[in-house]
Amino acid sequence: MASLFRKKIVTAQPAGQQLARTLSWPHLVAMGVGGIVGTGILTLIGVGAGLAGPAVILSFVIAGGICACAALAYAEMATMIPASGSAYTYSYVVLGEIIAWVIGWSLILEYSLVVSTVAVGWSGYAAPLLGAVGFPEALVKSPELGGILNVPAIAIIAVVAGLLSFGTRESATLNAVLVAVKMIALAVFVFIALHYFDAANLHPFMPYGFPKAVAPDGAERGVMAAAAIIFFAFYGFDAISTAAEETKNPARDLAIGIVGSMVACIAIYILVAVAAVGALSYTRFASSAEPLALILREIGRPGFATFLGASAVIALPTVLLAFLFGQSRIFFTMARDGLLPASLATVSKRGAPVRITWITAAIVAVIAGLLPLAEIAALANAGTLAAFVAVCACMLVMRRRAPDAVRSFRTPAATLVGTIGILGCLYLFVSLPSKTQVYFAAWNVLGLLIYFAYARPRAHAE
């Protein structure tokens, strides 16, 4: 019986399972920014403000700092192991098969739920525009929110899946254009909202305290409770690492894409958060499905609110593209390793994994059509935190196991950065809603049953 901790050796893949190398660093930076800046800042800032009050600004700083540590670890591992699969592949090479399975299973949870969350968020911005032309309200909400089915969320997933099936480079180029639209919209919001900044809106700054605690209404609130949810707003850079086999110069381009997109987005988020809570009391936008547009309407700028909403409808699909791209590559790599059915590890004539892309799209469309935003985002965070811990651990292990190995990108102060990344992610996990932690544990119990019953006997670590 093979060891549970047998390692994978990355080798060249057979012709029918090779992804086409068509991406350069500008595509990767655009993919990173497009993946990071999206539902998190456009919709979850309201959820975060409801949990932390004006101190949601601090929640963004904490979540961003922890993600920055993880991003540095990702950059080092991606350039050392330039293969598709992201944290799953790094874990397989460094930590062993069963750890890789748990991380891969967690990534399936992360990417599937991120795509679903963003689709629901996109639908929230599209709903007012669709309502204006007579689209039934019951078809833009999940059953739990009083609707029948979230049809716009399902439709946008289908559109993005079709784009990805057409070709990786073509979809990446369109993504770059849409990212520019999104950046312009956020710049307009910051410029206008800062003119209405009122320091009184920041008091009391921390109404629910710092650690996660149960508020009088029974909800779990606090700065860290908010950070654990809006942590969702910062990841997306990890999708870049799934493009390693489709990058022309992975040794250079992966590090530029991961670190560059993360630095840019931390600055953008803090600016937007300050402008939002300063322009309007958080209690007035905390429960909104489109908080930034609501803020602009409340301060008397409805025209710009419409512009922001339209920009979100146009540009939020960039997040869908980044994560649906990443999820299909995770599935593809696990299938290529034998942990999932081998029939999923096939590519089209253009070198794109079309079959697994559409299967992934079908799964996430069901989730997006039936579940509300907040619950999806919290569970997605649990899977991401597990992956980030694994990548930081892989970096630290490789620094000891192979200190002289070639590293085209070296994380500065690696021991400190890796330790902060691990401990910070664990603290964020503890700060997640209790039922989310239970759901995540149940998901991984199911995953281990599948591993021992199906995946382990068929795996072929090379």
UniProtKB/TrEMBL annotation:
Q: Does the keyword Membrane apply?
A: yes
Annotated compartments: Membrane
Q: How does it sit in the membrane?
A: Multi-pass membrane protein
Entry keyword set = Membrane, Transmembrane, Transmembrane helix, Transport
> Where mainly found?
membrane
Q: Name one GO molecular function term.
A: amino acid transmembrane transporter activity
InterPro entries noted in UniProt: AA/rel_permease1
Q: What is this protein called?
A: Amino acid permease
